[in-house]
Write a structure and sequence with these properties.
The complex is a heterodimer of chains A (469) and B (450).
Chain A: H1 4-19, E1 25-40, E2 43-61, E3 64-70, H2 77-87, E4 103-107, H3 119-135, E5 140-156, E6 161-179, E7 182-193, H4 204-221, E8 223-224, E9 228-234, H5 236-248, H6 253-257, E10 285-287, E11 310-314, E12 317-318, H7 325-331, E13 339-340, E14 349-350, E15 354-357, H8 364-369, E16 373-377, E17 380-385, E18 391-396, E19 399-403, E20 406-412, E21 415-419, H9 420-425, E22 427-430, E23 435-443, E24 448-456, E25 459-466
Parallel strand pairs in A: 4-6, 8-20, 9-16, 15-24
Antiparallel strand pairs in A: 1-2, 1-5, 2-3, 5-6, 6-7, 9-25, 10-11, 10-15, 11-12, 13-14, 16-19, 17-18, 18-21, 19-20, 22-25, 23-24
Helix pairs in contact in A: 1-2, 3-4
Chain B: H1 3-19, E1 24-40, E2 43-61, E3 64-70, H2 75-89, H3 125-139, E4 144-160, E5 165-182, E6 185-193, H4 201-217, E7 225-231, H5 233-245, H6 249-253, E8 274-276, E9 299-303, E10 306-307, H7 314-320, E11 337-340, H8 347-353, E12 358-370, E13 375-388, E14 391-395, E15 399-404, H9 405-410, E16 412-415, E17 420-422, E18 432-435, E19 438-447
Parallel strand pairs in B: 7-12, 11-18
Antiparallel strand pairs in B: 1-2, 1-4, 2-3, 4-5, 5-6, 7-19, 8-9, 8-11, 9-10, 12-13, 13-14, 13-15, 15-19, 16-19, 17-18
Helix pairs in contact in B: 1-2, 3-4
The chains are: A alpha+beta (469), B alpha+beta (450).
Chain lengths: 469, 450
């Protein structure tokens, strides 16, 4: 994929913006190409290819931002006119933080470009999983495999020019086991940046075999989950989602400031809560776009700011918010490079990349040994969290009773419904088994799905309640 | 400048595909201009304009099927994209169950009220509508208002190798407002239409502001458990989107719908008359053709609670031994515009149906534990009130809707005679809806335990 004609679109937009003497403009061209395979019960239901290419411009005039985009590579000036018209009237409060304009480029490390991998090989990857799951008695198998490449070129009135080129692969499996009137479902997603070679590191088939066994076991032997106050151990799949939902999202500065109030919502975290205790001393949460091979990988954000790890929670204290240049300006800080846009026609807004709870030094077995009566929630299916990111719910799919420090059989649908401070304050043990799961995080209006890793180790929570009705 | 190109570009794609030996294809070209005004904290944050033409296609060669999407419509770009796609297509396995694209041409339904020339160039009307919504919400008691307005004017053309050649002009506008008195006292309003004058920014702002104000007046502690509930307009948009979308036949065969094996059986209460109605004049989601070229039509999904049909494209129809219902998306059959028949109650009478229960104004973040069983939970917000004496008397905080699709449909107890057309940011499951407010007999609510 060459950026070719679209780089010329960028030239024309820059020329038009310069000609208008705009104090600030930001021109971006972005090409996203992807292909996806969906296999259902051994039948290849869909093969799709998508190519999205175009350019956009953002301008700010008297505090109001104007944004316009086009996929017509032959235009340029008209897009700038529309953006300027959008900003007309002013009277807003939009400003940008001052950042060093850089000229640089980066790319993900790709040994074998997924686009060069024959379709037969990709189909075979899915078919092997499907056949094994069918052999293990799984009633319905839905398997997806997607690869994508994203090329971004950003230029601004400040002289910045950054180019990024990232290739990604992901796979999601959703399994259903039906036994008479009873059924259970489970799901796993793996993904990363890089070439076809990264698939072999996922161990997806082995993980799904374990998942299928646990599905059979809980349909055969599962008992209703206990309710009430008890110790709960959660697996990396659950703790990673918690890191994303109840630390990442509420620490997005645009939510803190109310810019997403009507859509994804606001945050229970106020600007003056920086430095306040929100969890126990053993908990730290990091968001790091620079992790090589990660699904949320980038080295410069969509405003051209150099990426770095963001230490959102440090030893239980609220430490840092996620900023783009707009929110950083309000807080009087530098941007920490959290601006992302999913396509050329979306504005860059504050997003996570790879959010994880930092690992500790215990094994999962040691954490479970420390529980006399409780539940081990290894995986989840259902979850949600309120729009202030305060009150959340995770319902276990694979889960076990713990008695005397040992697993004592599967339980059905344990419901962990808990507040964010309630969750983080109850953590007293952290495993060393940090794992990452691939996800697509949704936010913005129109919606923008961006690739992220959710990560965490096994955690032990003391005295939380398991609920449900 | 865009719509003139649509047909020509679609034609060009069909020519390229024919030269590549493709046997069947459906090409949809969408072009137009969309504008959005986003606002928060009573001020406009950004005004956006999109000028776009994009193409989606279904391409078939030897019972091998691929779905494609591209925004690179320069001749060279399109040719190289399609060539690469067809090369890959030839490596796919043949579908065992297949039905060809339909042979047209067809007579398409003549649907009124789909296009309003005022939305081609609305000038300052969009910003003014936003300012009206902010103003009315603040007059009703809100301290802060946030939301967005999206307006679009465009053109869709579908050309197929089956002789289908159909184009439709379309305009849409939607506005939503979320009002705050304090961070937990919120209200929500949403309106949508095919015409500029069809939205009511004053009412949207006012209702959002009133609910936010009432939420701030006093809080009643209500614990988890089962109780009656009335769902408001925004809540219904989310719920109906789920109830209707679960009728997609592809969801059913994938064991991802609680309606599997229930065709012809009584699922909901007698009050549940749910249809997909893409042919209703002025319906926000109305359109005259599906993506395979079939004419759309009104499909009754539930009649007096009995599940009457799944929604089909040509391939799922073949799987089920039936005919397409005109609901072809590119892979999944989909609903276009869901309508729940109204009842005969006023809003006050509906509240009486749920005495001691909750009035829930908005439902968001709905997620399933098991799609096949229908167990789910969702966040409730923007006005959750305890109903006493037939009135919402105090806000209730910290609860979550936790129930089952089948159980909720079975427990519908009343509907208002007033219906509204609604779509909003959280209707992520389904299309726009026309819905009354709904009372449900017993609904599960849970709460955080720590």
């Amino acid at each position: 994929m060459g950026i070719g004609d679209f780089a010329r679109l960028a030239d024309r937009m820059v020329e038009a913006a310069e000609g208008r003497g705009l104090r600030y403009y930001e021109v971006r061209v972005q090409i996203d190409e992807s292909s996806i395979l969906w296999m259902r019960n051994g039948v290849l239901e869909a093969f799709g290819m998508e190519s999205s290419a175009g350019g956009s411009v953002r301008v700010i005039s008297n505090g109001r931002m104007g944004f316009a985009s086009t996929n017509d590579a032959e235009t340029g000036a008209e897009v700038v006119e529309e953006a300027v018209a959008g900003a007309a009237g002013g009277g807003g409060r939009t400003r940008l933080s001052r950042e060093e304009p850089v000229r640089d480029s980066y790319s993900s490390r790709v040994v074998r470009d997924p686009r060069d991998v024959p379709l037969d090989e990709k189909i075979e990857f899915l078919r092997q999983i499907d056949e094994r799951m069918a052999e293990m008695g799984i009633t319905a198998r839905s398997l997806m495999l997607e690869d994508s490449r994203q090329v971004v070129l950003i230029r601004t009135s400040e002289g910045l020019e950054v180019r990024g080129d990232v290739t990604r692969i992901s796979s999601t499996a959703t399994l259903t086991l039906v036994d008479g009137a009873r059924s259970t479902q489970d799901r796993v997603s793996r993904g990363g940046s890089g070439g076809w070679e990264i698939l072999s590191g996922w161990g997806l088939l082995a993980e799904l075999e374990g998942m299928a066994e646990s599905m059979k076991e809980r349909l055969e032997k599962g008992v209703p989950a206990p309710r009430g106050k008890m110790d709960v151990v959660i697996g990396p799949s659950v703790s990673g989602l918690v890191a994303h939902e109840s630390t990442g999202h509420p620490y997005e500065a645009d939510r803190v400031l109310g810019r997403e109030a009507a859509q994804a919502g606001e945050s229970f975290v106020r600007p003056d809560m920086l430095g306040e205790r929100i969890g126990s001393e053993v908990v730290s949460v990091v968001d790091d776009p620079t992790l090589e091979g990660s699904y949320g990988f980038y080295l410069y954000d969509w405003e051209g700011v150099r990426a770095r790890p963001r230490f959102l929670m440090k030893e239980g204290l609220i430490n840092e918010f996620l900023h783009n240049r707009e929110t950083a300006s309000v807080f009087g800080v530098r941007s920490n490079a959290a601006a992302r846009a999913s396509r050329y026609d979306r504005e860059p807004i504050v997003r996570m990349a790879n959010t994880y709870i930092a690992p500790g030094d215990e094994t999962p077995e040691e954490l479970i040994e420390g529980v006399s009566e409780g539940v081990y929630m290894k995986r989840f299916m259902e979850w949600n969290i309120d729009d202030r990111r305060f009150n959340q719910r995770y319902v276990g799919s694979e889960a076990y009773l713990i008695r005397g420090g040992r697993l004592a059989g599967p339980v059905l649908r344990p419901v962990l419904e808990v507040t964010t401070p309630g969750f983080y304050s109850s953590v007293d043990g952290i495993g060393r088994d940090l794992e990452f799961e691939a996800a697509t995080c949704g936010k913005g209006d129109p919606g923008q799905g961006v690739p992220v890793w959710t990560g965490g180790p096994t955690l032990r929570l003391r005295g939380v309640g398991l609920g449900g009705i | 400048m865009f719509h003139e190109r649509s047909e020509a570009v679609a034609e060009q794609a069909l020519d390229i595909l024919e030269s590549l030996g493709v046997e069947e294809a459906a090409v949809l070209v969408t072009s137009g201009r969309r504008r959005q005004v986003r606002y928060s904290n009573n001020e406009i944050d950004v005004v956006k304009t999109w000028m776009e033409t994009s193409m989606t296609l279904q391409v078939v060669k030897g019972r091998r099927v691929t779905v494609l999407e591209t925004s690179d419509l320069r001749e060279g770009g399109l040719r190289s994209f399609l060539r690469a796609a067809v090369e890959r297509l030839e490596r796919l396995p043949e579908r065992r169950v297949y039905a060809p694209l339909p042979d047209g041409p067809f007579d398409y339904p003549n649907i009124g009220g789909l296009y309003d020339p005022k939305l081609e160039d609305p000038g300052s009307a969009l910003v003014e509508a936003v300012e009206t919504a902010i103003g009315s919400a603040r007059r009703a008691g809100a301290k802060r208002v946030a939301g967005s307005l999206m307006a679009e004017a465009g053109h869709e053309c579908l050309l197929t190798t089956g002789g289908v050649r159909v184009c439709e002009r379309e305009t849409r506008i939607q506005l939503e407002a979320r009002a705050f008195v304090d961070p937990q006292s919120t209200g929500h309003g949403a309106t949508c239409s095919r015409s500029l004058d069809g939205i009511d920014p004053e009412r949207v702002g006012e209702e959002a502001g009133e609910d936010a104000l009432l939420s701030s007046k006093g809080v009643e502690k209500v614990g988890p458990g089962r109780r009656g509930a009335v769902f408001g307009w925004s809540a219904m948009a989310t719920l109906l989107g789920v109830f209707g979308s679960m009728a997609s036949a592809m969801r059913v065969v994938s064991q991802m719908s609680p309606y599997a094996d229930r065709l012809g059986t009584k699922v909901g209460s007698d009050l549940v008359n749910l249809a997909d109605d893409p042919v209703g004049d002025g319906n926000y989601g109305a359109r005259s053709f599906d993506l395979e070229g079939y004419p759309t039509r009104r499909n009754v999904i539930f009649e007096e609670g009995v599940l009457k049909t799944y929604l089909h494209n040509r391939i799922t129809a073949r799987m089920f031994g039936t005919r397409s219902t005109g609901n072809a998306g590119w892979v999944f059959p989909r609903a276009w515009h869901l309508t729940l028949d109204p009842g005969d109650l006023s809003e006050d009478e509906l509240l009486e149906e749920a005495e001691g229960g909750l009035l829930v104004k908005n439902v968001t973040y709905l997620r399933f534990q098991n799609y096949l069983s229908g167990d789910f939970s969702a966040v409730i917000r923007d006005g959750v009130f305890l109903i006493r004496g037939g009135e919402p008397i105090a806000a209730v905080r910290g609860l979550r809707l936790s129930d089952n699709v089948l159980r909720m449909l079975e427990s519908v107890r009343g509907l208002t005679r007033e219906s509204r057309q609604v779509v909003h940011w959280w209707t992520e499951w389904g299309p726009s809806v026309t819905t009354p407010m709904m009372a449900v007999g017993e609904v599960g609510f849970t709460a955080a335990t720590a």
